[in-house]
Amino acid sequence: MSAVRMIQVDYLQLFSKVKLCSRQEMEEKWKKCQMGQQFCEYLKEKEISYTWCIRHPEVLGCRESRDYYQRYQEYLGDDYSICKHLLVHERKGEKRVFLIIVDDCKSVDLTKLKEQLDCSKLEFVNSEEMQDLLHTVPGNVSLFNMEFDSQCKVNLIMDQELLDRKLLAFHPLYNGMSIFLTPENAIKYLDMIHRNATFMTVPAKKKEWVLEKVI
Fold it and tell me: What is the pLDDT of residue 26?
């Protein structure tokens, strides 16, 4: 297995912006850091290799992640996808649950997607259901949370386009860390936990062009 290259910062500096947090909140953040690190070690033990591991301030969305990754463009290059995760379920009928993973630049057309999946209208799950299904909270959903779906309630859908990227970026169960691994190793991880992904071209919303009057 190739050596993992680390991009990291001093944690004292990392937490300097949360000086107004209580000691308990600081301890909780440190526990989450340790959990992310332990999960990375777990992947290495299972020979699921990744190319880069970045430790950074907690991010709540793909846009924040992209802004941060740009600082390391020299190392990361530009042939990678920041993976956006949408956890949705059917409003009626079977109420199937889907975790949809696409590049962060794609705006998913849920109306067209429900037609492709032959299901009822799709809507986002609430935070309580997310916690029950994948043991996580909004802003911290990752491919790796599939490991907690012990009852196999979540159907995983990955955009076919992701297979063409050199690297895919995911949080290792903690949104203060990111790892970059090949699509092949992402699939290897799913094989390890005995889960399958449906690869399909996830429909994107059409861009709406707005004509503005120039004054």
Answer: 73
